Amino acid sequence: MIERTFVKENVKRLLIDEYFKKELSRAGYSHCDIRKTPIGTKIIIYAEKPGFVIGRRGKRVKELTETLEKTYKVNKPQIEVKPIEDPNLDPEVVAQKIASSLERGMHFRRVAHAAVRRVMNAGAKGVVVIISGKLTGERARTEKFMAGYMKHCGDPSETLVRTAFKIAKLKLGVIGVTVKIMPPDIVLPDEVIIKDEEIIEVSE
Fold it and tell me: Would you say 175 and 165 are in contact if contact means Cβ atoms under 8 Å apart?
């Protein structure tokens, strides 16, 4: 019974996250934090443009609250909106910007290189942008753009590397955009820090 409840709650969280990704893409939606409180359910939405989430006179927040309560059966949802500290270090925002640029007809190489530069200038340790699909012709292929240092396997690649995936709908077909970012504040397990020892002279 406990396992079923646990799975059900996690499925609900996933569906809510997917709903926010679809409805708040223009707001630069990153992720949400759902917490149960004694008076209801507190949902913190992190977005690049909080104003788009709130809407004029809070109209958009009211619509989101009603949908969460009626469609997703969330108990007394209370939405709080917070801005992202640095959008260029958030893979969800970066991937969405790349997908939007591709849909506007910009060349994939130019878009990818510009995104890599922005991420590295924001202080990231490393970034990988993967664009796959029918990029220039009928034959699909994958292009990878990298800078800095990146963990591709092992536990650090799953716990320390932030990953996001978005799609761009073009006339030739669907283009997949994957962004991986290593934040500047992480400490890798194999990272060695050498400290300068202070030499103390003892007088006889």
Answer: no
Q: Name the more confident of 154 and 193.
A: 154
What is the distance between the alpha carbons of residues 170 and 189, in angstroms, rounded to a whole number? Answer: 41
- Specify the 3-state DSSP secondary structure of 177: strand
Tell me the H-state helices in the chain: 2-23, 50-54, 59-70, 91-103, 108-121, 155-159
In the chain, the amino acid numbered 44 is I
Q: Are 112 and 145 in contact (CB under 8 A)?
A: yes
Enter the DSSP assignment of 197.
P
Q: What is the pLDDT of residues 50-62, one digit of tens each?
A: 988 988 888 999 9
Which pTM value belongs to this model? Answer: 0.78
Grouping H, G, I as helix, E, B as strand and the rest as coil, residue 134 is coil
Residue 124 DSSP symbol: -
